[in-house]
Write a structure and sequence with these properties.
The chain is an alpha+beta fold and 404 residues long. It is built from 12 helices and 22 strands. The strands form 5 sheets. The protein has a 7-stranded mixed beta sheet with strand order 6-5-15-16-17-14-18, with helices on one face. A hairpin with a 2-residue loop joins strand 15 (211-216) and strand 16. Helix 9 (310-328) runs antiparallel to helix 10 (333-364). It starts with a strand and ends with a helix. Bound molecules: flavin-adenine dinucleotide. Flavin-adenine dinucleotide (FAD) is lined by residues 4-10, 27-30, 34, 38-41, 101, 128-129, 168-170, 174, 278, 297-298, 305, 308-312, 314.
């Protein structure tokens, strides 16, 4: 088995494959693990699975558990709070864990290293997949052939063979391109602006819960409290883009405007902050399996980061892929193909009906102001919450039953 890509999805899939007794080789074109700030939310459905795998205990102290979500309208001050505690009974972890994704990757690398022979790295860093050769159908004899190349100048491509290739090589997946699979969808017209601050003005901090969606006539803002800082996501309009992306002045001014009913706009001017921006889009492949290549994570789908679902979905589908491959590993070629085809069709269907559908809805509406929320009935709130914001807690459970 070859896993291409040592991001969270590739590493967790490899970890699970190895736990189930399947050997696999992980390659990544980077020369070292990334510490970039990307996904920072782990949802209850994922936390349940990470706990089952013995990974969560080491992660919990590194993150912030957030169970209170707030919808806040300014300048009116209208607000609605709801607690993920209403998910008690449906999950062992009725909270979001705000944690940088690279901390999961670091833990997985440590655990994978322990399983390697001394001196053997768990990932072949600096090895890019550059070509695919033979790719026989799973019920046909023969192995898949792939070519990897070291990043140093002049290195020659090396041939690898494997029974399966798991493509977890991210949004710009080389495997997907080599297979000529369309990645249909759209990009949002404007990037989002993210600011990271160690501290908020005290009056603003008092208004925000660990996850707050703010609505204001000038625009929306999402605020996430991490263990040691705050992430504020701002959404500039098309006409503001040049200034919004150039430096942090637009963000300081916008924050001053959004919170002007709470504190003096000038307090934002000298606050230390890190400012960046990123593009968001919504795309997915039409199929997850081509011969012996299987696509997971961002290689198969990207979504708007609002709601924090995309990585979580990739982790769940990667774990289920490992389970499916392991359960069929000693069976006939036809049965292996059936297990993989079941996995592929199940997760493709869930990608469109759950992941893409929900993230599109999160973009259109603000679930904080859902009329059905705060109904006084914890059961009804839980249902609305799960449908509006969280991965359906049953998607992994249903799936684990479907092929077995
Ligand atoms: C700013 C930002 C914020 C986000 N916030 C959230 C959030 O809050 N919640 C959420 O769920 N998601 C979020 N996401 C999305 C999340 O980061 C991704 O869904 C997640 O990283 C996907 O993991 P992955 O392992 O599939 O891909 P990646 O993390 O992209 O990893 C792919 C790996 O493949 C390697 N690779 C690429 N090409 C090759 C090749 N040819 N050969 C070998 N290796 C290769 C890369 O070097 C990389 O290490 C966010 C994304 C961004 C950019």
């Amino acid at each position: 088995m070859v896993v291409v890509g040592a991001g969270p999805v590739g590493l967790l899939t490899a970890y699970r494959l190895q736990s189930l007794g399947l050997s696999c080789l992980v390659v990544d074109k980077r020369t070292a693990p990334s510490k970039a700030s990307r996904a920072s939310t782990f949802q209850p459905a994922c936390l349940d699975r990470l706990a089952e795998l013995g990974l969560l205990a080491a992660l919990l102290p590194q993150g912030r558990q957030v169970s209170l979500l707030r919808h806040l309208a300014l300048p009116s001050g209208e607000r609605r709070d709801w607690s993920l505690a209403c998910l008690q009974g449906q999950t062992q972890h009725p909270f979001r864990l705000h944690l940088e994704q690279h901390l999961l990757c670091e833990l997985l690398l440590q655990r994978l290293t322990r399983r390697q022979a001394p001196g053997q790295p768990p990932v072949l860093w600096g090895q890019a997949l550059v070509g695919l050769g033979r790719n026989p159908a799973p019920d046909q004899p023969g192995r898949l052939e792939a070519w990897v190349q070291r990043s140093d100048a002049g290195a020659r491509p090396q041939r690898l063979t494997a029974r399966w290739l798991v493509a977890a090589d991210g949004a710009h997946s080389t495997v997907r391109q080599l297979l000529q699979l369309p990645f249909d969808g759209h990009d949002l017209p404007a990037p989002v602006v993210r600011v990271m601050l160690a501290q908020l003005p005290a009056a603003v901090g008092a208004e925000l819960a660990g996850l707050t969606y703010l609505r204001h006539p000038l625009g929306s803002l999402s605020a996430l409290q991490m263990r040691t800082d705050w992430r504020l996501i701002l959404r500039p309009g098309a006409a503001e883009l040049d200034s919004a992306l150039a430096d942090d002045r637009w963000a300081r001014e916008r924050l001053g405007q959004l919170f002007s009913s709470v504190c003096e706009p000038s307090v934002w001017q000298d606050l230390p902050m890190v400012h960046d921006h990123y593009r968001v889009g919504q795309r997915c492949v039409g199929v997850r399996q081509v011969g012996r290549c299987l696509l997971v994570g961002d290689a198969a789908h990207i979504t708007n980061t609002r709601g924090g679902l995309n990585m979580n979905f990739g982790l769940l589908e990667g774990l289920d892929l490992a389970d499916s491959l392991a359960s069929a590993s000693n069976q006939s070629a036809a049965q292996q193909q059936l297990a993989v085809a079941n996995w592929a069709s199940h997760w493709q269907e869930r990608t469109t009906s759950v992941l893409l559908a929900r993230t599109a809805r999160l973009l259109d509406s603000n679930p904080v102001f859902e009329p059905n929320l705060g109904s006084g009935s914890p059961e009804r709130d839980a249902t609305v919450l799960i449908k509006a914001c969280l991965l359906d807690l049953t998607i992994s459970r249903n799936n684990r039953n479907h092929a077995r």
